[in-house]
Amino acid sequence: MTKSIILLSGGLDSVASLALGKEKYNITLALTFDYGQKSAEQEIKACKKICEYYKIRHKIIKLDWLKEITHTALVENTDIPQGIQKTSNAVWVPNRNGLFLNIAASFADGEDFDYILIGANKEEGQTFPDNTQDFIEKINAEFEFSTKKHPKVAAPLINFNKDDIVKQAIEHSAPLDLIWSCYGGAETHCGICESCTRLKNALIANGDTKYLKLIFGHENITD
Ligand SMILES: [Zn+2]
User: What domains lie within the chain, and their CATH numbers?
Assistant: First the structure.
């Protein structure tokens, strides 16, 4: 029987991937990475709740050294950019997806998992090259050499932008009230960072009011 791993950050994309892929891929293990990002504590809290909700095993992997070589606003004590950015530099973490997928591939190889799900999508793919179909094909080719089990990476959102992802997440009853999609680490979503802005816009585009209220505490962007 097929069984799969998911890379779970607790944000919209990873939770939507879980909701879409849970049955088809039989996801039984979620990996969450703590590399000292400002939002780590909130992400881990969200991931724990989401794994309880879906009844899957949860493993947190600490990568303290990654913080030391990462000089972006996600980890450093500088302001996180607001609004939608044209460049990814401010939030780039060196080889993040390549690293996370390779760690997941070790789990897959050692514990006989068939697939590794990642929340890579069309919208992020326009900014981040490690969110593209090309990258996924290349890393699958790598696993043909670097593993015995030859796990495959699956990205159920690869053709979707944020509006589509929110639509799919709602249709698949994803528990969006449990997510943490903010780059910051405050008690609640900041509502102004790039990640919050994209989520907010997508909820509004889908005519949602329930999750706008639950996540951001108000029903529309002009509040
Ligand atoms: Zn935010």
Answer: 4-161 (3.40.50.620)
Q: In this predicted model, what pLDDT tens digit does every residue of 84-141 receive, in sequence order?
A: 765 566 778 889 999 999 999 999 999 999 999 999 999 888 888 999 999 999 999 9
Distances (CA, A) of 131 to 98, 125, 138, 171: 10, 4, 12, 23
Q: What are phi and psi of 7, to 5 degrees?
A: -85, 115
Ligand 1 mean position to 144 CA, how many Å?
38
Report CA(106)–ligand 1 centroid distance (Å): 32
Residue 27 Cα to ligand 1 middle (Å): 28
pTM of the model: 0.92
| Alpha carbon of 25 to ligand 1 centroid (Å) | 31
Centroid of ligand 1 to alpha carbon of 202 (angstroms): 14
Average pLDDT, the chain: 92
Distance 195 CA to ligand 1 centre (A): 6
Question: What is residue 57's three-state secondary structure?
Answer: strand
For residue 152, report the distance from its CA to the centre of ligand 1, in Å.
32
Strand order in the sheet with 152-154: 57-62, 27-34, 4-7, 115-117, 152-154
